[in-house]
Amino acid sequence: MDMTATSHLSPSHSQSTSTIEHLALLDSAYYNPDIAPTLPYQRTWTKWHIAALWVGMAICVPTYMLGGVLTSYFGLSISEALLTILLANIVILIPLTLNACPGTQYGIPFPVVLRSSFGIVGSNIPCLIRALVACGWFGIQTLFGGLAIHILLSTLFDGWANLASVGEVIGFFIFLLLNLIVVIKGANSIKWLETLSAPLLLLVGIGLMVWAMPHISMAQLLEEPAKRPATDSVWHYFFAGLTAMVGFWATLSLNIPDFSRYAQSQKAQITGQIIGLPLTMFFFAALGVVMTAASPTLVGESIADPIHLIGKIENPVIVAISMGILIIATLSTNTAANVVSPTNDIQNIAPKYINQTTGVLLTGLIGVLLMGWELLKKLGLTSSTVSLESLYSNWLIGYSCLLGPIAGIMIVDYFIIKQQRLDIHSLYTVDGHYPRFNKAGFIALIIPTLITLAAIVYNVIPWFYDYGWFTGSLTGGLIYYLVSPSSQSHYQLVTKSS
């Protein structure tokens, strides 16, 4: 049956038809209620909920530090860095809104959307690539959240400060537990958290900007020269930085169906993303630049992250309130951006044996393991000298090279090959129109990956790696179009089945 037809029925009839579809799939090994198509009563997210989701995700410690990353590691001036961040988040809106469409149209999450382009079983490979990146970010954000909890408890209880790094590790696991509880409670819990936190976080950001502005000269700050050779052209640095900033949300440009499946309409998801993402990212990155520049005057030294900066303030009431808000900010980012996706991706491996709760717990475990080196360093059990800031600034380009081709494949598959028509029943069974492994998807993923590896190892066409998300998405999408069966053959199959 063609599920698009249900959108033209009355709400009660549409819900009844969808329920029948659910019941027909109960025995399938590739189905469980958590990754099933959303029913009409579950689609309650308006454009403001979607916008709040992005505000809650964009306002976080890594966003605050992006300006510093671009000036320190990519050789851009502050004005160039802020412009790059704004442009990157306008660019990433394109794959975000396009890949959100099948989620809203059919109510299906990211792993199920991928079954169309990579196969019912083959979808697990790109899913796990996405999940691993999310778990890495989950660990990084949990470190920041744990540090905020440690500083908060140190402010409230004199004895806690004596725990030093051990207190940070305990804070890590407290924050980890908070994340798991929110996601286990489901989509409504995340919607509530994002809606509550979004206006609060914007008000706090504006307050911090007002506090810091009298202590700096904005004109002088924007006129500071870039940290690159004066004879070098800006364009190589700019496009490398742009690629990295696009890579920042390249993760969500894939799994955005995990959220758009709850949207009331395509207009709601598109409008909400346009409202919520670009300006929030620009504002909070600009706040990071301003606060870092003002920090020598405010606390006597230059500090690049907000948690350590606020921790230096001598007023315990301000510190306690600020840490509480930072904990909410990091929690709203982490749950939505870094727990939901791997939870769904892990379920996709064996839906009959892995439900949402199990997926959440496995995500938490992997996140802990990936951050094990940092936790051991805090406990003095290893002498690792890896900089967390340099780690995440360097891997933005690295993982965008893998995620770019997947984004291009998804867009071409849904809009060109499948002409926005999916057979939902077939996406949950190996007896339908979609193969276990779709060769076209893997050819289109492997070729850009091999070219990227050649660029890294042999220094051949290095620009292919430097601009990895753009080169990967364009190459992956083009190859997929060339090697896939014609769109007309799929159209005829789905029309015949409906």
UniProtKB/TrEMBL annotation:
State what protein this is by name.
Answer: NCS1 family nucleobase:cation symporter-1
The record's section on Pfam families has: Transp_cyt_pur (PF02133)
Q: What InterPro entries does the database record attribute to this sequence?
A: Pur-cyt_permease, Uracil/uridine/allantoin_perm
Keyword Transmembrane in record: yes
The protein's superkingdom reads Bacteria
TM helices/strands, residue ranges: 48-74, 81-100, 132-153, 159-184, 196-214, 234-254, 275-298, 318-341, 353-376, 396-416, 437-461, 467-483
Q: How does it sit in the membrane?
A: Multi-pass membrane protein
Q: Does the keyword Iron-sulfur apply?
A: no
Where is it localised? Membrane
What family does this belong to?
Belongs to the purine-cytosine permease (2.A.39) family.
Q: Which Gene3D superfamilies match?
A: Hydantoin permease
UniProt KW keywords: Membrane, Transmembrane, Transmembrane helix
Phylogenetic classification of the source organism: Bacteria, Pseudomonadati, Pseudomonadota, Gammaproteobacteria, Oceanospirillales
Organism of derivation: Spartinivicinus poritis
